[in-house]
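Aim 2, interim progress. The first record below pairs a target sequence with its structure tokens.
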Amino acid sequence: QVKLVESGGGSVEAGGTRRLSCVASGYVFGDYCMGWFRQTPGKEREGVASIATNGGTRYTESVKGRFTISRDNSKNTLYLQMSSLQPEDTAVYYCAARSNCGRLWSATMGNLWGQGTQVTVSS
């Protein structure tokens, strides 16, 4: 059974840091592009960052220089290190997996998803 389980969410003050983790099971983690998305009420889920099987990364403009995505294939775990957090970063953060990074961003209906973890940044 394919499963993605996020953790690390919580409340943090503006300017603070937080690290999210996503543990994958049920498939060959190293063969998949992995990513983080986020969603706020009333808005569409948006891509935040992705990391390809070769380690190549992509970030949405608003988090460049503040967030770092990484993966540990030996632990089947994806990370998102978030720093300089701002209230506009408040959202439910979802881990996603797809065989192709391009489709991860553009055809999200086909992604594998975790259940999400809430991050709340207070000013």
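The second target in this work package is listed in the same format:
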Amino acid sequence: QVQLVESGGGSVQAGGSLRLSCAASGYSDSRKYMGWFRQAPGKERERVAVIYSPGGGTWYADSVTGRFTISQDKAKNTVYLQMNSLKPEDTAMYYCAAGPSYNGWRYWGQGTQVTVSS
């Protein structure tokens, strides 16, 4: 059984930083995509950042490029999202996801709330 557990969300003022973590268990495929998505109230879910294993290639939404960094610790089977220079428009529920392809997000975490105040 695959489980993704996010942590690290919280409230921060604009310009601040947060680091989200996603601990994956039960998903041992060597080739997989791990990603972060977010959804704000009344808005569609948005793909934020993706990292591919084993190559380590990454992708970012234009809205976060240069401010967010996705990384992974393979030994811990954990993916991180370092978020710097946060803006109020980054406020959303952030979800971790995993799957066998870039558009095949098979597994989802429960989400962690990020709130950025101006």
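The chain has a mean pLDDT of 95. This observation will shape the mutagenesis plan for the next reporting period.
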